TrEMBL record, chain A:
Residues 37-136 form the Histidine kinase/HSP90-like ATPase domain. This is Serine/threonine-protein kinase RsbT. InterPro entries: HATPase_C_sf, HATPase_dom. The keyword Transferase applies. It comes from Salinibacillus kushneri. It comes from the Bacteria. Keywords: Kinase, Transferase. GO terms for molecular function: kinase activity.
UniProtKB/TrEMBL annotation, chain B:
The lineage of its organism: Bacteria, Bacillati, Bacillota, Bacilli, Bacillales. Gene3D superfamilies: KaiA/RbsU domain, PPM-type phosphatase domain. It comes from the Bacteria. This is Sigma-B regulation protein RsbU (Phosphoserine phosphatase). One of its GO terms (molecular function) is phosphatase activity. PROSITE patterns: PPM_2 (PS51746). The keyword Hydrolase applies. Keywords: Hydrolase. Residues 118-328 form the PPM-type phosphatase domain.
């Protein structure tokens, strides 16, 4: 069996870094065995998270981790930054909050693309979003 | 399985170019929607089916289909969001329905039918909840009538109306003086309503013994008197500032003697601001419509007038509509 136990990070500063993060995520998910639709969904979720860092925090990183439990294997992605943080998380998790402005999938969209979604944010300190997807 | 089904349909279509196959494709997409299959997944099904049917698909074709899949991912997210929002909207709608029923119970009033007046009243909300309000008081000797309109409509207006109702309920039973009632209500509204929200109100009471109709207005849409003898209509002139703007206001009180057959016609601006296309209707039109149904009972009149204006506005009210007609019977 191929060694899947990757763990790596891509720093996000320039817009081009978003593409690098997408590529990394796609390669890893392909390695794990995700199909084309799931690969594309994972890449899109990474894209959204990286874009948020690039647009609102300027500096941060996307980290990838191979995960497994008794039944499945999967991918875990952590997007962290030291940006301004989010003061009202419930608000940004509402449907239609960002999409109506044409800003993309928004956090609720990312949540739907994945199996697990978690967010920590503190104003003035930064934001950390963790997402996971299991291979079925 | 969905893929098998799609593949067979596709194969059949490619072989026959038959409209029947396209019809079945249409049915297929409807079933897929019901099963919550998103657009990007359909593209994937298409790719898989095509690769099964044509294992030697040119590389460019294969890649371009994958490219299409990638561009559909965001549509898939939008599709799911749409579903979630629609569910949420259903929830909200049923919640508002419950509130509207509650409001109807709260604001319920009995139209007096045992005295010298023949009374008709109708009030229809433009949205689910009504920002108009009317109320009758019947103490054997006098019949009191209140009509009010919150500027604005929908839920905020409806909440505001409940306040008026409860304020009125707390006033002593023997208080029937329109001037005083408006003055007291103004104080309540001024204290409890945010600036920028106004309520217009007309309050009148009819003395069944001397047949005088006493009334005051807080900036309310002027109603009409109908003189049976001359078969003419006259605007009810009454000055007064809307409720809630100034702290201490004294309202003027007016009186009018009603002969047998005379009518008092009260309404909200949902009636006068009915539109035909982009044009407001003229006040004469209201008079004309009322004239047309003048032979009917007061309740039949208001119902018919409402039906007329409902049709005029293509069955889509822009504002809450309230119309009250009082006619002296004897």
């Amino acid at each position: 069996m191929m060694d899947n136990h990757f763990q790596s990070c891509i720093p996000i500063q320039k817009e081009w870094d978003i593409v690098a993060a997408r590529q990394q995520g796609r390669d890893f998910s392909k390695q794990i065995g995700f199909g084309a639709v799931d690969q594309a969904r994972i890449a899109t979720a990474i894209s959204e998270l990286a874009r948020n860092i690039y647009l609102y925090a300027q500096k941060g990183a996307i980290c990838f981790e191979y995960i497994e439990d008794m039944e499945h294997k999967g991918i875990k992605i952590i997007a962290s930054d030291e940006g301004p943080g989010i003061s009202d998380i419930s608000r940004v998790m509402e449907d239609g909050y960002t999409t109506s402005g044409g800003l993309g999938a928004g956090l609720p969209g990312i949540k739907r693309l994945m199996d697990h979604f978690d967010i920590y944010s503190e104003e003035g300190k930064g934001t950390e979003v963790t997402i996971q997807k299991w291979l079925r | 399985m969905v893929l098998e089904k799609y593949k067979n349909l596709l194969k059949y279509y490619l072989a026959t170019k038959d409209e029947g196959a396209l019809y079945r494709a249409d049915q297929f997409s409807k079933r897929s929607l019901q099963q919550d299959i998103s657009p990007d997944e359909i593209v994937q099904i298409h790719i898989d089916a095509l690769q099964d049917l044509y294992p030697d698909l040119p590389e460019e074709m294969r890649l371009s289909l994958h490219f299409l899949l990638e561009t559909m991912i965001s549509y898939g997210i939008a599709h799911q969001e749409f579903r979630a929002l629609r569910e949420k909207q259903f929830e909200l709608k049923s919640e508002i329905e419950v509130a509207a029923n509650m409001q109807n119970t709260l604001l319920n009033t009995v139209i007096p039918d045992d005295g010298a007046l023949d009374i008709g009243a109708i009030s229809v909300a433009a949205h689910q909840m009504n920002g108009d309000y009317y109320h009758f008081i019947n103490d054997q000797k006098n019949i009191g009538v209140a009509i009010a309109d919150v500027i604005g409509k929908g839920i905020p207006a409806a909440l505001c109306m409940s306040m008026i109702k409860y304020a009125l309920d707390t006033f002593p039973a023997n208080l029937s003086n329109p001037q005083t009632i408006l003055q007291l209500l103004n104080r309540v509204v001024e204290r409890n309503v945010e600036p920028g929200m106004f309520i217009t109100m007309f309050y009148g009471y009819y003395n069944q013994e001397d047949h005088l109709f006493h009334y005051s207005s807080a900036g309310h849409e002027p109603g009409l008197f109908y003189h049976a003898l001359s078969n003419t209509f006259e605007k009810i002139e009454a000055k007064g500032i809307v409720l809630g703007v100034q702290k201490d206001v004294t309202y003027q009180q007016y009186s009018k003697y009603l002969s047998i057959g005379d009518m008092v016609i009260l309404f909200t601006d949902g009636v006068t601001e009915c539109r035909r296309g982009d044009q407001f209707i003229q006040k004469e039109e209201i008079v004309d419509v009322i004239k047309e149904y003048i032979h009917l009972s007061a309740q039949e009149m208001v119902d018919q007038v409402y039906r007329y204006f409902e049709r005029l506005q293509d069955f889509d009210l822009r504002d809450d509509f309230t119309l009250i007609i009082l006619r002296r019977k004897y």
